[in-house]
Every structure is written in C-alpha cells, then in structure tokens.
C-alpha cells in the first residue's frame, strides 16, 4: 500500500514535494516524483512507497515500462504471478518481481480491458506517452481510495484529499456533502467534502485524452443484481468450494517480502481468515486483538480462545482513555474529510501497535455483507412481516409502539410509518429520528438505491447488495485504509476477493441465512478448523466505550466543544434540538454518542482542514 499523486497543473517542485510530504505516512520508504510531460502538456507523477513486494529500489515509483508507459500504483494485484506467466508467453519481458510492472504489460497487451485481468485492491494511473492519455482505475469493491479534480485542462488526483487540497486555490466546501455526512456518517461516492473534488467510484476506470481533455469514466465491474449464474451444487459441495476460494484468497494475501499478521477479533470473519492462514502456511501466524477494560467492551478473551486453538503467536493490545484521546486529537490529519465511524479509533490503535511487529495484516472485512451477517438483517426479517399487514393495521401498530416509553419501541413505531421495507432500511442506516438535521434535499436519494429498490432478488440479497455498494465501500473501506495507512501498515481483506463476493451472490439465500443462523456457510467452513462452542455467544461489533467516556472521562471535553454557541456554528443542524439530545446523553436517559461523535468530528474538520474555505 502506498500513496499516489499526479497532476497536469504546473506546480513547482517544492509544491509537489509538500503535497507528497503531507501523506508520507502512507508510504515512508520512498518519496519520489517526476515531471513526465512536455512544456505545453505537463504531467507530474508522485508516489509515497510502502515497500511490500520486491522491496528493491528498482520497483520504486513513478515506474516506467517499455520507455513510454509510466505508472503510479497503490495496492496489490494478488494474481500478478499467474498474469505475469501469461504475458511472458506473449513475449513480454520483466526486470522486477513486482506487480507494478505486470500492470504496465497488461495495459500494453489488453488496453483498457486490463482491469478485467487484475485481481486485488488497487488504484492506479498510467500515462501512455505514445497515445498522450491518462488511464486509471479503482478496484472492484473500493478498497483503495482515489480522489480527483478536473477543470478544463487541469487534472489532479491523489490517494487522499489533502494532497489535492494543498496549494490549491479553487476549492469550496460542499454544503450538500455536509448533509450527506451527517446522515450517512461518511461522504458517499462520487462526492467529496469539496465541491470541486470527486471520488472515482469502486469498480470504475477512466481515460483522459491530454490533447482534447475529453474525460470518460465507466464501470467495469458491478454486483450481480439478477443472479445470472446461480449456484447449482449441493450445500456440502458449496462448503468445499468456498473453503477453497477462501484458502486461495488467504494464501495469495500472505505473500509479501515483509512480515505478515492477522487481525483477530474472535468473531467468525476474522477467525476463518486466521484459521485458513494457519492452514496455508508453515510459519507460525501472528495474530492481534484489542482489549478494553470497560465492562461489556472486552472481546479479547474470545480472540484468545481462537488463538490458543490455532496456536498462533497472539498479541493483545490494551486500549485506555489517554491513548484514545490522543488519537481523537489527531483524527482529522489521517481522515482528511469528515468520517463518523467511531470504530476508526480502535482500528487506529490496533494498527499502531500491530505495525511494531508486522508490515501487512489480514482482516475479516466483507464477511457480513456477502454472507448476510449483520444483526440489522435479522431485525428487517422480523419487521418485514408487519409490512404484509394492511396499511391501516400497520399504522395502528406504529402509533401504539410510538406511545411506549421504551426507546427501541418508539423507534420501531417511527420506522413502521415508512411506506415500504426498503425505505425503512435506508432510515435504519441513516437514522430513523433525523429531526435534528436541516437539509434542503433528500439525503437518502443516492444512486445506489437501485440495488435495493428492485424485485429481481429477495429482500436479504438486496440488503447485502446495497451494503456492499454503500456501507462496505463508503465506511468500512475508508475506516480501514486510513487507520492502517496512518501507521504505514497494509491491510488485506481475503473475504473481499471478488471471486468470493461473486460466489456468495450466486448461492441460494438459505446457504447463507437459514432459520436464525446468519453466515451459515461461512460458519460451517470455520467449524472445520475451530470448535463451534467458542462462537456460541452474541455477535459483537468493533466499538469503543464512547457512550461511557462521553458521560464521564470526556464529559467536560464534549460540553465545551459542543456548547450552544459552537452548535450554532455547525451547518445544517437544529442546534436547540441537538443540545437537548446531548443533555439526554449526559443524564443517561438516551444513548446519543453516535451523534455526539459525528458532530465532534465535523467541528474538528471544519476548524482544521476546512479553515478558510467558504461553504457552498
């Protein structure tokens, strides 16, 4: 993993150096840049390298292949060895053992279709000197970030928004993006916090003609919303096939010229990755987990049980209030646009200490989306029955539940007022009670709704498709990329291999969710290696005890940062309503910590990264 940068804007060498220094944490091993274009068609490529494969300087970037193909690349192409052999049989020669060189040769052989041959996580841009064009792509599921600015003959791209932001005089903060953030907890693709900067969407590629400045973006991969190739085998056969797919995905991600470990929370997803890592390597696998001292937040005991069974070299990282506060203070330096998933803090803590032992860590991300694992899917299954009632009966139930004193019943009552189950689901992930948000547009009306509002799949398959395109991409991938890159640690997610995602989509729903058993087939793969009894417990999320901290250790901090005067300065919120909600949290009558954290992050970003910019 690295940081990439490029521009057709005539910046000075000092300015380019500044932009790369800003995100040097993404790749501290080598910072370099080149002026590749001509005087009338400038092209600048820059790179922060985190050396993982072929750590020799011959693989430093910007990299040139065959004299005319230049590339900056972030990520890993896991099938590069197989692809390299195929290209060698066609006459291509290679001078390194890196995947970077293979991308260049694949581009020469297959043109823009080369992206269809690449398996992995990546964001790259190629400067084709002969054709005078730029070609770039982002991986299928959006593991790697890609921001760009395009205005007439000015084009600039980077792994993080701060590189583009620096020395740029033509940016304004997007008021619409702030509303999106307040609703979704992140700024959804293709938007960014700045009006003039966009994100290249997951599974998309682009070309830019440097003569005409014609910019074309297109999708090259998407989830299968119609299940064109449904799985025909038995459940037992599917277990064997999935075992093989995960084993291969884990094995290829263990390949590196630096030490590799596994994030192990003790849950199903990370445990199956750890189990198959021990199966596919002869080396003792290093595993890492986080421990919290607050009651109800310490899952490290379960990770320890799995580690003991698999006989891994296990490391437990203890999180305390002081270290958490330090990470909060530096949060916007790494998450350089507003981001409200509070589990980013323990993710940063885990990455910080894991990096002391390894340079690459495998995670279990992606299992919940592909194998119907989130608790909210179970809740939607239960509520869906109420949507089969006549409208007047459903609204009667909603009204009755809304009068109940219990918060959950009130929210169910409010939720049942939505016209259909799809709208209710969007409300459940943005917020059923959003009376505090003042927005002049429908923040739930995102293009990704098409994955939810159709009838080609059942409800559970549509929910997971929608989450793959939204929550997994906008939230999980952003969280993990920034948290790990903050400490120059590369994170790899075997369960997000597109072959596994596509296989999961082809399976009958009952293979994944049967009765009350969620992630059924993934669990049955795991239980071949780790006893089922270890996982006989409620599912837990990766969270910090913010709810308690905000009422105790961080109470003064919250009340000073979010007093009435400060709230009135935050765009798009009803300050009076929010103030009441904060007081409810402090009194212990309601848990408002997600809203409090969301506002703290936004205020911090506006004060630091957003200082001096107008909001439009």
Outline the secondary-structure elements:
Elements (H helix, E strand, L loop, with lengths): L2 E5 L5 H10 L7 E6 L8 E6 L13 E3 L3 E9 L2 H9 L10 H12 L9 E9 L4 E6 L8 E5 L2 E5 L2 H5 L9 H10 L12 E3 L4 E6 L5 E5 L15 H19 L6 E4 L4 H13 L5 E7 L7 H11 L2 E7 L1 H9 L1 H4 L9 H11 L5 E3 L4 H4 L4 H10 L6 H12 L4 H9 L5 H10 L28 H11 L1 H15 L4 E3 L5 H9 L2 H4 E2 L2 E2 L1 H7 L19 H6 L3 H7 L2 H6 L5 H13 L5 H15 L9
Parallel strand pairs: 13-14, 13-16, 14-15, 16-17
Antiparallel strand pairs: 1-3, 1-9, 2-3, 4-5, 5-6, 6-7, 7-11, 8-9, 8-10, 11-12, 18-19
Helix pairs in contact: 2-3, 6-7, 6-21, 7-8, 7-21, 9-11, 11-18, 14-15, 17-18
Number of domains: 4
The rounded distance between the terminal residues' Cα atoms is: 34 Å
Q: What is the CATH C-level name of the largest domain?
A: Alpha Beta
Poorly predicted spans: none
Q: In the CATH hierarchy, what is the superfamily of the largest domain?
A: Aminohydrolase, N-terminal nucleophile (Ntn) domain
Strand tally is 19
**Overall mean pLDDT:** 92
Q: What is the helical fraction, as a range of percent?
A: 40-55%
Taking the sheet with the most strands, its summary is: 6 strands, antiparallel
Rg, please? 24 Å
Judging by the overall fold, what is the CATH architecture of the largest domain? 4-Layer Sandwich
CATH fold category name of the largest domain: Glutamine Phosphoribosylpyrophosphate, subunit 1, domain 1
Number of helices: 26
What structural class do you assign from the helix and strand content? Answer: alpha+beta
If strands are numbered along the chain, what order do they take across the biggest sheet? 2-3-1-9-8-10
Gross morphology: globular
Portion in strands: 15-25%
């Amino acid at each position: 993993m690295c940081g990439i940068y490029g521009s057709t804007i005539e910046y000075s060498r000092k300015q380019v150096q500044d932009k790369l220094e800003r995100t040097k944490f993404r790749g501290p091993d080598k910072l370099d840049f080149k002026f590749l274009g001509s005087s009338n068609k400038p092209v600048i490529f820059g790179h922060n390298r985190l050396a993982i494969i072929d750590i020799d300087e011959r693989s430093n970037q910007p990299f040139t292949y065959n004299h005319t193909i230049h590339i900056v690349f972030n990520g890993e192409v896991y099938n590069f060895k197989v692809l390299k052999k195929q290209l060698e049989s066609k006459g291509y020669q290679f001078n390194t053992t890196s995947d970077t060189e293979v991308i260049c040769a694949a581009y020469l052989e297959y043109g823009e279709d080369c992206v269809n041959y690449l398996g992995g996580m990546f964001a790259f841009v190629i400067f084709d000197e002969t054709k005078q064009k730029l070609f770039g792509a982002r991986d299928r599921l959006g593991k790697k970030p890609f921001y760009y600015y395009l205005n007439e003959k000015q084009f600039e791209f980077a792994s993080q928004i701060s590189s583009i932001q620096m020395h740029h005089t033509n940016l304004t903060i997007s008021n619409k993006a702030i509303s999106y953030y307040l609703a979704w907890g992140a700024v959804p693709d293709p938007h960014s916090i700045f009006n003039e900067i966009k994100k290249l969407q997951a599974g998309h590629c682009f070309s830019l003609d440097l003569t005409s400045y014609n910019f074309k973006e297109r999708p090259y991969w998407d989830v299968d919303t119609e299940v064109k190739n449904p799985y025909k085998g038995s459940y037992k056969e599917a277990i064997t096939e999935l075992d093989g797919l995960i084993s291969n995905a884990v094995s290829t991600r263990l390949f590196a010229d630096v030490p590799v470990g596994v994030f192990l929370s003790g849950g199903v997803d990370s445990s199956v990755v750890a189990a198959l890592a021990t199966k596919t390597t002869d080396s003792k696998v290093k595993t890492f987990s986080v421990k919290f001292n607050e009651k109800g937040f310490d899952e490290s005991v379960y990770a320890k049980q799995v580690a003991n069974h698999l006989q891994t070299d296990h490391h437990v990282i203890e999180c305390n209030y002081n270290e958490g506060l330090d990470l909060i203070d530096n949060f916007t330096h790494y998450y350089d646009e507003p981001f409200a998933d509070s589990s980013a803090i323990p993710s940063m803590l885990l990455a910080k200490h894991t990096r002391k032992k390894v340079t690459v860590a495998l995670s279990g991300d992606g299992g919940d989306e592909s194998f119907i694992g989130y608790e909210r899917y179970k809740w939607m299954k239960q509520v869906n029955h109420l949507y089969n009632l006549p409208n007047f009966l459903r609204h009667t139930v909603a009204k009755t539940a809304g009068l109940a004193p219990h918060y959950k019943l009130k929210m169910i009552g409010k939720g049942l007022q939505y016209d259909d189950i799809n709208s209710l689901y969007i409300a459940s992930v943005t917020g059923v009670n959003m009376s505090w948000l003042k927005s002049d547009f429908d923040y739930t009306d995102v293009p990704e709704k098409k994955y939810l509002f159709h009838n080609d799949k059942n409800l559970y398959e549509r929910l997971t498709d929608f989450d793959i395109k939204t929550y997994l991409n906008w939230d999980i991938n952003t969280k993990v990329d920034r948290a790990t890159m903050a400490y120059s640690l590369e994170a790899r997610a075997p369960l997000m291999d597109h072959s596994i995602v596509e296989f999961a989509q082809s399976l009958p729903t009952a293979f994944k969710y049967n009765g009350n058993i969620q992630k059924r087939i993934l669990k049955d793969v795991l239980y071949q290696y780790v006893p089922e009894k270890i996982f006989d417990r409620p599912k837990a999320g990766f969270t910090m005890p913010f709810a308690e901290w905000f009422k105790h250790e961080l109470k003064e901090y919250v009340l000073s940062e979010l007093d009435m005067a400060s709230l009135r300065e935050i765009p798009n919120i009803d300050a009076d309503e929010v103030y009441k909600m904060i007081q409810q949290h402090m009194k212990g009558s309601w848990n408002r910590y997600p809203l409090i954290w969301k506002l703290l992050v936004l205020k911090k970003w506006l004060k630091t990264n957003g200082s001096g910019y107008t909001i439009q």
